[in-house]
């Protein structure tokens, strides 16, 4: 126990030192949990160790694993094959109101497509995978097609920024129950932007927590000059926190460090 406490205190001190590498002006006025893990050196950067350990709803970042489970069960044909058939209901969100491939649905974060996928996966299979990958609170009791979607008065599954990073790191280490083929498909659809310095892969998430307060996520990884950086960022408070705002923060931080 003593050795563990020494290690834990050392880790916290290292984290606080590394946090100085983040230009805090880039975090705006949000309550920001930003964790960056360097897979080559093992260095961890955290903007706020307490916020990084806070569990909140994953919102649409859960689509990363919903996609992998759907691929693993053969429910998604391929990234660019016809997949989601629009039901004709006009939802007024750009990109949702027509048929979609997986790539398109992932890019526009089409909730109806992923709700259908979750129902096809079913409660039993979904619970099995959530337990196997050890996803946050592992609580899908809110309902098979809504458990990752936060709503006022409804408890969703919850996960912290630290846990998001640890889970993505396991995925990249091939320690989760998904095939190499399907991991590569996911990586393909997760690609966000490519610059001369690196390639960014990620998924945003936006919503409101059980108290009705808005939140935003951006999680993923960057490949830059032979090194992979796994990251997770969630924001609350401030002015209009959203997945888009979280992505802007992450991109600006990586650009400021010469990684992207």
Biggest beta-sheet profile: 6 strands, antiparallel
CATH topology (level 3) name: Beta-lactamase
Series of H and E elements: HEEHHEEHHHHEEEEH
Task: Calculate the mean pLDDT score and round it.
Answer: 91
Q: Low-confidence stretches at least 5 residues in length (pLDDT < 50)?
A: 1-20
Estimated radius of gyration: 18 Å
Secondary structure: helix percent? 25-40%
Count of the separate structural domains: 1
Span between termini = 40 Å
Number of strands: 8
β-strand amount: 15-25%
The assigned structural class equals: alpha+beta
Shape: globular
Q: What would CATH call the homologous superfamily?
A: DD-peptidase/beta-lactamase superfamily
Description:
The structure is a single chain. With 260 residues, the chain is an alpha+beta fold. The chain has a single domain, classed as DD-peptidase/beta-lactamase superfamily (Beta-lactamase). Helices cover 38% and strands 20% of the residues. The chain has helices at 2-19, 49-53, 63-72, 102-108, 111-133, 161-172, 180-190, 243-256; strands at residues 31-38, 44-46, 82-84, 100-101, 191-194, 199-208, 214-224, 227-236. A 6-stranded antiparallel sheet has the order 2-1-8-7-6-5, sandwiched between helices. Strands 3-4 form a two-stranded antiparallel sheet. The longest helix has 23 residues, at 111-133.
What is the topological layout?
Elements: H1 2-19, E1 31-38, E2 44-46, H2 49-53, H3 63-72, E3 82-84, E4 100-101, H4 102-108, H5 111-133, H6 161-172, H7 180-190, E5 191-194, E6 199-208, E7 214-224, E8 227-236, H8 243-256
Antiparallel strand pairs: 1-2, 1-8, 3-4, 5-6, 6-7, 7-8
Helix pairs in contact: 3-5, 3-7
């Amino acid at each position: 126990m003593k050795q563990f406490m020494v290690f834990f205190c050392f880790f916290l001190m290292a984290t606080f030192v590394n946090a100085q590498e983040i230009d805090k002006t880039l975090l705006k006025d949000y309550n920001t949990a930003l964790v960056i893990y360097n897979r080559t050196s093992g260095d961890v950067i955290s903007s706020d160790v307490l916020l990084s350990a806070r569990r909140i709803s994953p919102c649409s970042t859960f689509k990363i694993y919903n996609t992998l489970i759907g691929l693993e069960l053969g429910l998604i044909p391929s990234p660019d094959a016809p997949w989601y058939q629009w039901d004709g209901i006009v939802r007024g969100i750009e990109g949702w109101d027509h048929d979609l491939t997986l790539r398109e649905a992932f890019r526009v974060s089409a909730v109806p497509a992923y709700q259908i996928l979750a129902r096809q996966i079913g409660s039993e299979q979904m619970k099995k995978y959530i337990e196997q990958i050890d996803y946050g609170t592992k609580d899908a009791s809110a309902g098979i097609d809504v458990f990752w979607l936060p709503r006022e008065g409804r408890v969703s599954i919850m996960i912290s920024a630290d846990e998001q990073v640890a889970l993505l790191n396991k995925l990249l280490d091939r320690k989760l129950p998904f095939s190499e083929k399907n991991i590569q498909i996911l990586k393909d659809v997760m690609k966000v932007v490519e610059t001369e310095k690196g390639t960014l892969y990620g998924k945003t998430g936006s919503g409101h927590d059980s108290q009705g307060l808005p939140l935003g996520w951006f999680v993923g990884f960057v490949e830059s000059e032979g090194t992979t950086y796994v990251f997770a960022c969630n924001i609350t408070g401030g002015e209009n926190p959203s997945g888009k705002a979280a992505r802007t923060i992450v991109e600006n931080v990586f650009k400021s460090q010469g990684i992207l």
